[in-house]
C-alpha cells in the first residue's frame, strides 16, 4: 500500500494533476495498481509548513522486494521533480510505502522507536533504513481516509487494528479539512482498468 501526496506545482502541473500522474507512473517495472482511492484535499501537516495537499492511496501487486519497491517509488518521485531539501517541506510528489504484506521491518523494536519518537524530533530526524509499516499511519487522517476507501479491512501488523477502527479513533479536528476532490472519478476508472 502506498500513500500519494502533492502540494506544489511542477512540470506545468497542479498538485491534483501531479498526484494522478504519479499514480499512473507507478505502473510498470513489476508494479501493478489493483485499487486507487479518490483524490482528497487535505490540510498541510504540520500546520504552516507549506500549502495544503492533495492525497490519495493505492494498493499494488508486485514481485519486487520491499527495498526494490521503495527504490521504484523514489525513481517515480524524481521524474516529477521531488526535492528532499527540507524535512516535511513542500513537495511535488510524495510516495510513501505504508505496508508491504504485513511485514515489520527491520524489526519491531526499531519500528516502536520510530513510532514513539516525540513530534519535535520527528521534524528533525529521519530513519536511514526502510521502516515498515510506516510508523505514522495510525496518526495521519490524510493517510487513513483514502486508505479506508480502498482497503477498509487491512489490519495494522503491529497495532492489530483495521483501517476502519483506526479511522473511528480519529477526532473531528483530525478529520477537519479532508475533502474528496471532484476530479477523482478517473482514479476509480484507472484502478478498474487494471
UniProtKB/TrEMBL annotation:
GO terms for molecular function: 2-amino-4-hydroxy-6-hydroxymethyldihydropteridine diphosphokinase activity; ATP binding; kinase activity. Keywords: ATP-binding, Folate biosynthesis, Kinase, Nucleotide-binding, Transferase. Residues 87-98 form the 7,8-dihydro-6-hydroxymethylpterin-pyrophosphokinase domain. The keyword Transferase applies. It is an enzyme of class 2 (transferase). GO terms for biological process: folic acid biosynthetic process; tetrahydrofolate biosynthetic process. InterPro entries: Hppk, Hppk_sf. The keyword Nucleotide-binding applies. SUPFAM superfamilies: 6-hydroxymethyl-7,8-dihydropterin pyrophosphokinase, HPPK (SSF55083). Pathway: Cofactor biosynthesis; tetrahydrofolate biosynthesis; 2-amino-4-hydroxy-6-hydroxymethyl-7,8-dihydropteridine diphosphate from 7,8-dihydroneopterin triphosphate: step 4/4. Its EC number is 2.7.6.3. Catalyzes the transfer of pyrophosphate from adenosine triphosphate (ATP) to 6-hydroxymethyl-7,8-dihydropterin, an enzymatic step in folate biosynthesis pathway. Belongs to the HPPK family. PANTHER family: 2-AMINO-4-HYDROXY-6-HYDROXYMETHYLDIHYDROPTERIDINE PYROPHOSPHOKINASE. This is 2-amino-4-hydroxy-6-hydroxymethyldihydropteridine pyrophosphokinase. The lineage of its organism: Bacteria, Pseudomonadati, Pseudomonadota, Alphaproteobacteria, Rhodobacterales.
Amino acid at each position: 500500500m502506498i500513500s500519494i501526496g502533492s502540494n506544489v506545482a511542477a512540470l506545468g502541473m497542479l498538485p491534483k494533476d501531479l498526484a494522478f500522474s504519479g499514480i499512473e507512473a507507478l505502473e510498470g517495472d513489476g508494479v501493478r495498481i489493483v485499487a486507487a482511492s479518490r483524490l482528497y484535499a487535505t490540510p498541510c501537516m504540520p500546520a504552516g509548513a507549506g500549502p495544503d495537499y492533495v492525497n490519495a492511496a493505492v494498493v499494488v501487486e508486485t514481485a519486487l522486494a520491499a527495498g526494490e519497491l521503495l527504490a521504484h517509488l523514489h525513481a517515480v518521485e524524481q521524474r516529477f521533480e521531488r526535492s528532499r531539501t527540507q524535512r516535511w517541506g513542500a513537495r511535488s510528489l510524495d510516495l510513501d510505502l505504508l505496508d508491504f504484506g504485513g511485514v515489520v521491518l527491520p524489526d519491531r523494536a526499531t519500528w516502536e522507536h520510530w513510532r514513539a519518537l516525540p513530534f519535535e524530533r520527528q521534524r528533525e530526524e529521519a530513519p536511514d533504513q526502510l521502516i515498515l509499516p510506516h510508523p505514522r499511519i495510525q496518526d495521519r487522517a490524510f493517510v487513513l481516509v483514502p486508505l479506508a476507501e480502498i482497503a477498509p479491512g487491512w489490519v495494522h501488523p503491529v497495532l492489530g487494528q483495521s483501517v476502519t477502527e483506526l479511522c473511528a479513533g480519529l477526532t473531528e479536528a483530525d478529520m477537519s479539512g479532508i475533502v474528496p476532490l471532484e476530479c477523482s472519478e478517473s482514479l476509480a476508472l484507472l484502478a478498474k482498468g487494471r
